[in-house]
Design goal:
By secondary structure, the chain is of the alpha/beta class. The strands form two sheets. Strands 2-1-3-6-8-7 form a six-stranded mixed beta sheet, with helices on both faces. It contains five helices and eight strands, in the order αβαββββαβαββα. The radius of gyration is 15 Å and the shape is globular. The protein has one domain: 3-Layer(aba) Sandwich (Rossmann fold), CATH 3.40.50. The mean pLDDT is 89.
Protein backbone atom coordinates (compact mmCIF):
# COMPACT_ATOMS: atom_id res chain seq x y z
CA UNK A 1 0.00 0.00 0.00
CA UNK A 2 1.49 3.30 -1.07
CA UNK A 3 0.76 6.39 1.00
CA UNK A 4 -0.28 8.39 -2.08
CA UNK A 5 -3.21 6.01 -2.62
CA UNK A 6 -4.48 6.11 0.96
CA UNK A 7 -8.08 7.30 0.92
CA UNK A 8 -8.86 6.29 -2.65
CA UNK A 9 -12.08 4.53 -3.62
CA UNK A 10 -10.39 1.12 -3.15
CA UNK A 11 -10.14 1.91 0.57
CA UNK A 12 -13.89 2.46 0.70
CA UNK A 13 -14.36 -1.09 -0.62
CA UNK A 14 -11.88 -2.41 1.98
CA UNK A 15 -13.83 -0.64 4.71
CA UNK A 16 -16.98 -2.31 3.41
CA UNK A 17 -15.27 -5.74 3.65
CA UNK A 18 -14.26 -4.89 7.22
CA UNK A 19 -17.84 -4.04 8.20
CA UNK A 20 -19.41 -7.01 6.39
CA UNK A 21 -16.97 -9.56 7.85
CA UNK A 22 -16.89 -8.18 11.41
CA UNK A 23 -19.61 -10.45 12.88
CA UNK A 24 -18.33 -13.57 11.08
CA UNK A 25 -14.51 -13.34 10.98
CA UNK A 26 -13.08 -9.85 11.61
CA UNK A 27 -10.68 -8.60 8.95
CA UNK A 28 -7.01 -7.91 9.74
CA UNK A 29 -4.42 -6.47 7.34
CA UNK A 30 -1.19 -8.33 6.65
CA UNK A 31 1.61 -6.11 8.00
CA UNK A 32 4.18 -6.60 5.27
CA UNK A 33 2.18 -4.57 2.75
CA UNK A 34 2.36 -1.46 4.94
CA UNK A 35 5.95 -0.16 5.03
CA UNK A 36 5.76 2.13 8.05
CA UNK A 37 3.96 2.54 11.34
CA UNK A 38 2.32 5.86 10.45
CA UNK A 39 0.79 4.40 7.29
CA UNK A 40 -0.50 1.46 9.34
CA UNK A 41 -2.18 3.79 11.82
CA UNK A 42 -3.68 5.98 9.08
CA UNK A 43 -4.96 2.94 7.16
CA UNK A 44 -6.59 1.51 10.29
CA UNK A 45 -8.19 4.86 11.14
CA UNK A 46 -9.57 5.21 7.59
CA UNK A 47 -10.76 1.63 6.98
CA UNK A 48 -11.30 0.25 10.48
CA UNK A 49 -9.03 -2.70 9.61
CA UNK A 50 -6.55 -3.56 12.36
CA UNK A 51 -3.07 -4.84 11.54
CA UNK A 52 -2.41 -8.55 11.97
CA UNK A 53 0.30 -8.57 14.65
CA UNK A 54 -0.52 -11.90 16.33
CA UNK A 55 -2.98 -14.65 15.59
CA UNK A 56 -6.32 -13.26 16.78
CA UNK A 57 -8.50 -15.25 19.14
CA UNK A 58 -11.45 -16.88 17.45
CA UNK A 59 -12.26 -16.63 13.77
CA UNK A 60 -10.64 -13.97 11.62
CA UNK A 61 -9.96 -12.98 8.00
CA UNK A 62 -6.83 -11.56 6.41
CA UNK A 63 -6.48 -8.73 3.88
CA UNK A 64 -3.45 -8.80 1.60
CA UNK A 65 -3.04 -5.33 0.12
CA UNK A 66 -0.14 -5.39 -2.34
CA UNK A 67 0.33 -2.35 -4.59
CA UNK A 68 -0.39 -4.36 -7.75
CA UNK A 69 -1.72 -7.82 -7.02
CA UNK A 70 -1.11 -11.52 -7.45
CA UNK A 71 1.76 -12.92 -9.49
CA UNK A 72 0.71 -15.36 -12.21
CA UNK A 73 1.21 -19.03 -11.35
CA UNK A 74 4.33 -20.38 -13.04
CA UNK A 75 6.17 -17.04 -13.01
CA UNK A 76 9.95 -17.23 -12.79
CA UNK A 77 11.32 -16.61 -9.26
CA UNK A 78 8.06 -15.37 -7.73
CA UNK A 79 8.41 -13.62 -4.40
CA UNK A 80 6.20 -11.62 -2.11
CA UNK A 81 6.99 -7.89 -2.14
CA UNK A 82 5.07 -4.74 -1.29
CA UNK A 83 3.81 -4.80 -4.90
CA UNK A 84 3.00 -8.48 -5.39
CA UNK A 85 1.86 -11.59 -3.56
CA UNK A 86 2.06 -15.22 -4.65
CA UNK A 87 -0.56 -17.94 -4.69
CA UNK A 88 1.65 -20.01 -2.36
CA UNK A 89 1.68 -17.16 0.15
CA UNK A 90 -2.12 -16.94 0.07
CA UNK A 91 -2.43 -20.71 0.47
CA UNK A 92 -0.08 -20.63 3.48
CA UNK A 93 -2.36 -18.14 5.23
CA UNK A 94 -5.29 -20.53 5.21
CA UNK A 95 -4.71 -23.27 7.74
CA UNK A 96 -7.07 -26.21 7.67
CA UNK A 97 -7.86 -25.80 11.36
CA UNK A 98 -10.19 -23.19 12.87
CA UNK A 99 -9.05 -19.62 12.86
CA UNK A 100 -8.44 -17.96 9.53
CA UNK A 101 -11.74 -18.25 7.66
CA UNK A 102 -10.78 -16.37 4.51
CA UNK A 103 -8.07 -14.36 2.82
CA UNK A 104 -8.94 -11.38 0.65
CA UNK A 105 -6.25 -10.21 -1.75
CA UNK A 106 -6.32 -7.00 -3.77
CA UNK A 107 -5.50 -7.91 -7.39
CA UNK A 108 -5.42 -5.34 -10.15
CA UNK A 109 -2.54 -7.09 -11.93
CA UNK A 110 -2.80 -7.55 -15.69
CA UNK A 111 0.03 -9.39 -17.42
CA UNK A 112 -0.44 -8.00 -20.93
CA UNK A 113 2.29 -10.13 -22.53
CA UNK A 114 0.92 -13.40 -21.14
CA UNK A 115 -1.35 -14.09 -24.09
CA UNK A 116 -4.29 -14.35 -21.67
CA UNK A 117 -7.16 -11.99 -21.01
CA UNK A 118 -7.65 -10.67 -17.48
CA UNK A 119 -10.45 -13.18 -17.01
CA UNK A 120 -8.18 -16.04 -18.11
CA UNK A 121 -5.47 -14.79 -15.74
CA UNK A 122 -7.95 -14.73 -12.86
CA UNK A 123 -9.12 -18.22 -13.76
CA UNK A 124 -5.51 -19.50 -13.76
CA UNK A 125 -4.98 -18.07 -10.27
CA UNK A 126 -8.21 -19.64 -9.00
CA UNK A 127 -7.29 -23.01 -10.55
CA UNK A 128 -3.92 -22.89 -8.80
CA UNK A 129 -5.66 -22.28 -5.45
CA UNK A 130 -8.09 -25.11 -6.21
CA UNK A 131 -5.05 -27.36 -6.79
CA UNK A 132 -4.17 -26.59 -3.15
CA UNK A 133 -7.64 -27.73 -2.06
CA UNK A 134 -8.89 -24.19 -1.47
CA UNK A 135 -12.15 -22.54 -2.52
CA UNK A 136 -12.11 -19.10 -4.11
CA UNK A 137 -13.89 -16.48 -6.17
CA UNK A 138 -13.20 -13.00 -7.51
CA UNK A 139 -15.08 -9.86 -6.65
CA UNK A 140 -14.61 -7.91 -9.87
CA UNK A 141 -15.23 -4.17 -9.95
CA UNK A 142 -13.05 -1.10 -10.23
CA UNK A 143 -11.31 -2.66 -7.18
CA UNK A 144 -10.89 -6.40 -7.86
CA UNK A 145 -10.28 -8.81 -4.97
CA UNK A 146 -9.63 -12.54 -4.81
CA UNK A 147 -11.41 -14.27 -1.91
CA UNK A 148 -10.04 -17.63 -0.76
CA UNK A 149 -11.28 -20.01 1.95
CA UNK A 150 -9.99 -23.32 3.21
CA UNK A 151 -13.24 -25.26 3.09
CA UNK A 152 -16.72 -25.39 1.60
CA UNK A 153 -18.38 -24.37 4.88
CA UNK A 154 -16.36 -21.14 5.13
CA UNK A 155 -16.99 -20.39 1.44
CA UNK A 156 -20.73 -20.93 1.86
CA UNK A 157 -20.84 -18.67 4.92
CA UNK A 158 -18.76 -16.07 3.12
Amino acid sequence: MKREFLGDSYDAVKRMWCEVLAPWAPLYAELQFFPDEQLRRDFTKLTGIQMLTDKPKGNYSILNDPDTGIIMPGAQNPKVTSAHVTIDFIASQLPTKKGCRCVITFDQSDYRNSGQSREEQRRAKMCRLADEGLRCFYYVSHAPFLFAASDAEAMEEL
